[in-house]
Amino acid sequence: QVQLVQSGSELKKPGTSVKIYCKASGYIFNSYAMNWVRQAPGQGLEWMGWIDTNTGSPTYAQGFTGRFVFSLDTSVSTAYLQISSLRAEDTAVYYCARERPHDYWGQGTLVTVSS
Amino acid sequence: DTQMTQSPSTLAASVGDTVTITCRAAQSISIWLAWYQQKPGKVPKLLIYRASILKSGVPSRFSGSGSGTEFTLTISGLQPDDFASYYCQDYNSDSYTFGQGTKLEIK
Question: Which of A56, B3, B36, B41 has the highest count of CB atoms within 10 angstroms of its CB?
Answer without folding.
Answer: B36
